[in-house]
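*** Residues and shapes ***
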Amino acid sequence: MIFILSGVSHLTSQNYAGTIYIYTDFNGDGTYDVVEHFSDSIKIYDGVSSTLLARYTPDGTFVPTSVAKLRYNRVAVKYSSGGGDWKFKVYENLSNLLYTSPAFTQYPSTYTDPNNDGTIDITIRFQDSIVVYDGAANSLTKMHTYVADPGYSTSFHFSIPGGVMVIGMRTPSDMKFKVYENVSNLVYTSPDHSFSFYAYAYAMDYDSDGRFDIVVRTDPAGNERIVVYSTPYVSVDEAPSERDSKPTSTLIKDGYLNLAKPSNGNTTVEIYDMTGRLRMRAKVPSGESRVYIPLPPGIYTYKVKDEKSTTTAKLINLR
């Protein structure tokens, strides 16, 4: 049986009876590990040696359904009762149980780091609030509860440097956001109707001034508009001003990047993701001024090079 682990093929004689997933490096050795799911348990095997690293078994009526890496050698295992209740357990060194949470009526999520300490935190999202627990703590430690404004429900949240952005929704066409400094200090609330569910909001250094901005793409009447809420990198000293921006970024709506001038035959285009990883490189045929970008929607950096110059800019792929 051959698995592709971290770009290298490893041959193993291990026979797996459960369903296999390979999606992250749990123990920090540089190679993705193997996760085996059964109906009532989960096992993690070392991606290099196939050695069993950890096994998670039922806890009464609760059975493990998934395992998420919070940081190397620390995981959160999510358990379901099968009747609508959930809880999670946090393990250090993959198998040393630190604590077990109480039961919740909502699924525990592990996708963001609100306190920016390098460890993913654990989120429980209710209809009118989001509760975040510290993934780095050795016992159940609630960091903050984000409560929705009256009439709004909490939609989701994500980390920005020095803080958190929380999205609230009244209707799919009436959404707003709040910015918190240091997890819990509310520093800004956007106006009602800031954007719609069919648009989006995200954080990036939109104008390349070294500070993170909140970028909201609105579509209130079928006309695209980008509004940038400019914020300091760590804190907001005063309410940000709303303005129609003249984007320094390039928007792609049809899958094609339009070049400023036709290629002379020596033009190349490179696309990098937000981690700096090269995602594609293409040589543009002579006379062509469009390049197809076969990448998922998201924010990228692109470089256009020829023998005389290199142009670098941000790219927002909407397709």
Q: What stands out?
A: The first strand starts at residue 2 and ends at 5. The two ends are 37 Å apart (CA to CA).
